[in-house]
Design a protein that fits this description.
With about 300 residues, the chain is mainly beta. It contains 5 helices and 17 strands. Strands 1-2-3-5-4 form a 5-stranded mixed barrel. A 5-stranded antiparallel β-sheet has the order 8-7-6-9-10, with no helix packed on it. A 5-stranded mixed barrel has the order 11-12-13-15-14. It is elongated, with a radius of gyration of 23 Å.
Length: about 300
């Protein structure tokens, strides 16, 4: 089985078939199949009520996520699932007096299987899929499969510095990431290595072009403008320009041996691109190391996994 972030299999033909009837749920229970359906309510006791086409499912609080019973996972991990798709295994099944299914479910069991058969086998440098679940000032949390959480620290999101993960991501966005390190079951991820080297990004632009970018910082000596998530240039100072502004810039010069791009701000108010339109130079496989620096540059910026 492929272990993917919650919501990835909900609309598949197989999942819809199995959650549609008592027979399908029984088949899933007998074979240990992970299913998905929407969580409709979180009760006062923090049990999750799951909507099934053939009835209702209940995920007891302690079966809602790994770590709930031990206190290492907070109940907000359950409350925040309301209105969203959850993964689960069927543990018990019965019919009420009206013939409606009443199923006992375990999200924790799905997560434990995901850890055992997938996440615990990942090693630093492995490239994986993930889904953004929430954003904090220090980084973004992602679902790497069945609701198992991992963190991408803000300085690992891109080479171009951002003030907040919301500058790069939005909740629910599917992304690629690379395993940076692990502490027991917990993985720490990185993202910037998949967005290309200086040379790969610089090859998308040419001196003499006018392109759009976003202002990342304003210094006494110039304005740093991001052309791509892993590429920024320095523009001459211009009054009234603030961090976060969208601008159009003229590319005056590109200097690979110094990894510098000289820019001139032409105008402000450029239309921002969609945040989901990230360009990945790597989508899968494994990295032992990654070097951002241009071949001509003596300044080395690299990651070793």
């Amino acid at each position: 089985m492929s272990y993917r972030p919650e919501g990835s299999i909900y609309r598949t033909e197989e999942n819809q078939r199995l959650i549609a009837s008592a027979k399908g749920l029984s088949e899933a229970m007998e074979n240990g199949i992970i299913l998905e359906a929407p969580a409709a309510v979180c009760t006062g006791g923090h049990d999750l009520i799951v909507e099934l086409p053939c009835g209702t499912g209940l995920i007891p609080r302690e079966e809602g996520a790994i770590g709930i019973r031990e206190g290492t996972t907070r109940d907000i991990a359950l409350i925040s699932r309301v209105g969203k798709i959850v993964a689960f295994k069927v543990t018990e099944l019965c019919l009420d007096s009206s013939g409606q299914v009443r199923a006992m479910l375990s999200r924790k069991s799905a997560q434990e299987e995901c850890l055992e058969r997938y996440a615990d086998k990942l090693v630093p440098g492995d490239i994986i899929g993930a889904k953004i679940t929430h954003l904090e000032k220090f980084g973004c949390f992602v679902d790497i499969g069945c609701g198992v959480p991992s963190l991408i620290p803000i300085d690992m999101i891109s080479v171009s510095r951002i003030g907040h993960p919301s500058d790069r991501f939005q909740i629910g966005q599917d992304i690629r990431a690379v395993v940076r390190s692990r502490d027991g079951h917990r993985l720490c991820l990185s993202h910037k290595e998949l967005l290309g080297t200086w040379q790969e990004n610089a090859a998308l632009f040419s001196p003499g072009e006018t392109v759009s970018g976003v202002v990342r910082s304003v210094e006494d000596y110039g304005i740093f403008v991001e052309l791509a998530p892993n590429l920024a240039g320095l523009a001459e100072l211009r009054p009234g320009v603030e961090p976060g502004d969208r601008v159009s810039v003229y590319i005056k010069a590109m200097i690979p041996e110094k990894m510098k791009i000289k820019l001139i701000i032409v105008d402000t108010g450029a239309v921002p691109p969609q945040k989901s339109s990230l360009r990945y130079f790597l989508n899968d496989g494994h990295l032992d190391s990654w070097r951002y620096s241009a071949p001509e540059c003596t300044r080395i910026i690299e990651t070793t996994f």
